[in-house]
Write a structure and sequence with these properties.
alpha+beta, Beta Polymerase, domain 2, four-stranded mixed sheet, 4 strands, 26% strand
Length: 85
C-alpha cells in the first residue's frame, strides 16, 4: 500500500525557523497554483510539522526532533534525493 509518492524532509534550527519553512512551503505552492494541503499537523508546537498534500508529504522538523524520531532510519531503503538549496 502506497502512502504517498514523495516525502520531503527538512529541518530548522529552532521553532521560529520551522514555522518560517512551513509558511514558505504554503506560500510557494499557493503562488505556483499547486495543491492545497489535505491536512497540516503540529503547526502550533513547531517541533515536527507534517504537511500532507496527498501525492507528497512534507516533514519539517526542529533539529532536535529530527534526531529523536529518526524518520530517515524508518525509510532508509527508499531512494534518496539530496537537495542543496
Amino acid at each position: 500500500m502506497a502512502i504517498t509518492d514523495w516525502f520531503v524532509v527538512v529541518s530548522g534550527d529552532n521553532s521560529r525557523q520551522v514555522q518560517s519553512i512551513v509558511e514558505k512551503v504554503e506560500q510557494g505552492l499557493t503562488e505556483a497554483d499547486g495543491p492545497k494541503p489535505i491536512r497540516i499537523e503540529g503547526k502550533s508546537d513547531a517541533s515536527w510539522v507534517l504537511m500532507d498534500y496527498g501525492i507528497f508529504v512534507v516533514h519539517v522538523f526542529s533539529k532536535e526532533s529530527r534526531s529523536v524520531y529518526g524518520l530517515g532510519r524508518l525509510w532508509s531503503d527508499a531512494v534518496r534525493m539530496e537537495l542543496d538549496l
